[in-house]
From TrEMBL:
Organism annotation: Pelagibius litoralis
Entry cofactors: thiamine diphosphate
Main function: The pyruvate dehydrogenase complex catalyzes the overall conversion of pyruvate to acetyl-CoA and CO(2). It contains multiple copies of three enzymatic components: pyruvate dehydrogenase (E1), dihydrolipoamide acetyltransferase (E2) and lipoamide dehydrogenase (E3).
Protein name: Pyruvate dehydrogenase E1 component subunit alpha
The protein's enzyme class: oxidoreductase
Catalysed reaction equations from the record: N(6)-[(R)-lipoyl]-L-lysyl-[protein] + pyruvate + H(+) = N(6)-[(R)-S(8)-acetyldihydrolipoyl]-L-lysyl-[protein] + CO2
Gene (name only): pdhA
Amino acid sequence: MANSKAAASRAGGKRKAAAAPIKASVEDLQKYYRDMLLIRRFEEKAGQMYGMGLIGGFCHLYIGQEAVVVGVQASMGPLDTVLTSYRDHAHMLACGMDPKGVMAELTGRSGGYSKGKGGSMHMFSHEERFYGGHGIVGAQVPIGTGLAFAHRYLEEDAVSISYLGDGALNQGQVYESFNMAALWSLPAVYVIENNKYGMGTSIERSSAKSTELYHRGQAYGIPGVQVDGMDVLAVREAAEKALSHARSGKGPFIMEMMTYRYRGHSMSDPAKYRSKEEVQKVRQERDPIERLRGIMIEREVMDEEHLKALDKEVKAVVSEAADFAQTSPEPDVSELYTDVYV
Ligand SMILES: Cc1ncc(C[n+]2csc(CCOP(=O)(O)OP(=O)(O)O)c2C)c(N)n1
Ligand SMILES: [Mg+2]
């Protein structure tokens, strides 16, 4: 069981990483930056469109947590599968799902991934190995464990990655899953996105004994590691180890990503349970995109001009997605009775 003290000390602005060698190619750094930026701009646009009444139902934004999905995705193999909770747009984009199809699902249009009938929390892509979008806290964890079983049974070279929030770690079904995954040495990686809050309840108020969660698999012999989830390179490095552990037949692995969401739990949350200063401090000192941007400028991987051009390109992708999401037709009335289980 290893708690990455180095990762923790990089959190909170004490980072010395700028001087240390970076184990990533120029192309990798540019890709991670672009991927995180796409998620941020996509989510900002979704937030705006929600405010304009163009998106109905629930909508949970991931802004602030981008380094987690981008870092984990960077360490994945082509057959690895992903599933997560309702805070899921970023995971879909990171998996390679089309921003147009994701945005059109948010607006409830037929061009959406669930033909406009699923909305923000219910999208899937078998092609991109993404298995939802789940609204019930913790419910994705047994399903992810089942996928890990399927990978083994079908002798696929694949690991099942289940993302879950800190709030899900107090759900019984999570521990039933840990037990089975460990018992059968399944190729499962559990990525805890510890953003310190479950809706409006802080982790201090919800979790007994410790606010650290990486050791929650200890009773089942599942190794765990705590990672600075605001540092895309630290995430990638830790995820490479976790995935190779699971892939090699050694069984499940738990990663606790120390992260933070800037927006409320959902669009209807005024976030009165924390101070504006708390949010501002994280934005200023730990923002994952600004952090990578700083490294890239310092290392002369990209200059301001190139970064601006990239920003423009990403904005164009998002704007195209938003246009598509508003012009794609509403689902046909005949769709009322399709894809319905009775
Ligand atoms: C079984 C269940 N209980 C309660 C809820 C209501 N609920 C929705 S999100 C949430 C908090 C979950 O927090 P966390 O797992 O930390 O994820 P985050 O929203 O921070 O990403 C709760 C209690 C639910 N959806 N499912
Ligand atoms: Mg949380």
